[in-house]
Specification:
alpha/beta; Rossmann fold; 7-stranded mixed sheet; 11 helices; Chemotaxis Receptor Methyltransferase Cher, domain 1; 3-stranded antiparallel sheet; 2 domains
Length: 277
């Protein structure tokens, strides 16, 4: 491939945008509005150039013919990656601490306190949960599961290696206790300590079709992902999530999200926090 081809400008037509728009909705339930055309073009244009396709239409045809290939997953990865950071919406972690602490004072019919970060992206939320539980529950039996549809962000999450500018939400105490500061060629980065990592597991999971093996949880974080869903898809995801929440368990959603009007066994405790009857 020539250098000029590598840097050529490729624009996505409205019809090709609609093809990818439909694809990501069918796969992940994510609704990309008409205003996301530039986003789709920006995220996928490099793949079109690298694979030497004439345009987005030819690339789409290739992806659809190879739905079991890594390229299909690449499209999913590129179109579902969302921003996250440590201790985002910090009041939720204060409440998580209270819920975890109260579990110590109850006669539990199960041994393990489990929390699910259901749209964990690159792992910041899952590790924030883990730090919170480590501070509250110590060496008792607890664990965190982080899931995402994107294999790319899950790989980054499992590695647990971040740029130091991602640490802004972490207190100095927690940063020193649970993270290692990079030195030499890794200066400007930090790594989650293995003692905390071993408490966190990461799995690929599509919220539209949840594998039963994820099990049951005391708390589920389903934050800042439903803003990309239409009402019908949102209700489907909630219906898929609820069987995995224990009775008396808590569901956290994002501050910009709402499930008001959802007739179910969920009872609002405060804005964005629900308890299962």
């Amino acid at each position: 491939m020539s250098e000029s081809n590598h840097f050529r400008k490729i624009s996505i037509s409205t019809s090709d945008f609609h093809k990818f728009q439909k694809l990501i909705f069918e796969v992940a339930g994510i609704s990309l509005g008409e205003g996301k055309k530039d986003l789709v073009e920006g995220r996928l244009s490099k793949r079109v150039r690298v694979l030497n396709f004439s345009g987005f239409g030819e690339y789409f045809d290739f992806v659809m013919k190879h739905q079991n290939s890594s390229e299909f997953q690449t499209v999913v990865d590129l179109l579902t990656t969302n921003e996250t950071y440590f201790f985002r919406e910090s009041d939720h972690f204060t409440l998580l601490q209270e819920v975890a602490r109260s579990s110590l004072n109850k006669e539990r019919s199960y041994d393990r306190f489990r929390v699910w970060s259901a749209a964990s992206s690159s792992g910041e939320e899952a590790y924030t949960i883990a730090m919170t539980l480590a501070e509250t529950l110590g060496d008792t039996n607890w664990e965190v599961l982080g899931t995402d549809i994107s294999t790319k962000v899950l790989a980054a999450a499992k590695h647990g290696h971040y740029s130091m500018d991602r640490s802004k939400g972490i207190s100095k105490h927690l940063l020193k206790k649970y993270c290692l500061k990079g030195i030499h060629h890794e200066d400007g980065t930090f790594l989650i300590k293995k003692e905390l990592k071993k408490r966190v597991d990461f799995l690929q999971c599509n919220l539209m079709n949840i594998d039963q093996k994820v099990g049951l949880f005391d708390v589920i974080f389903l934050r800042n992902v439903m803003i990309y869903f239409e009402a019908e898809t949102k209700m489907r995801v909630i219906s898929n999530i609820l069987p995995h929440l224990k009775s008396g368990g808590y569901l956290f959603i994002g501050h910009s999200e709402s499930i008001n009007g959802w007739k179910s066994e969920l009872v609002m405790q405060k804005a964005t926090v629900y308890k299962k009857k």
